[in-house]
Amino acid sequence: MLKFAQIEIFRLLLKHILEEKIEFATVLNFDAINKGNGSKTLPIVTESVERNESEVSQLKGVIEGETEKALLIQFNDDKEVWIPKSIIRSDYDTSVKDSTQNFLIDNWILKRNNINTI
User: Per residue in 51-65, pLDDT tens?
Assistant: First the structure.
């Protein structure tokens, strides 16, 4: 059983790790704007998570079906695969049927479903 002092050290360590993860997992983009008479500028901060380009691939495909959480996509090699919407990193239009669209999809799911990325 952990003692109070050990629990407190563990709590502080977890707090530090989470703060550091949040700080270094995001990138800040500063855009300065003029306010009022132009003498002061205030930064606008937007946060974005960096993506490693080697972790995603761009493929062409046709949306054949849709559920709340996934799309049935037919790729150029006539292979139909259900892809979770959370894995698709690009915008897509589900109202357009039988039209080829570009998809930016995580490589791990493409590899799992034996989809050629070339």
Answer: 666 788 999 999 999
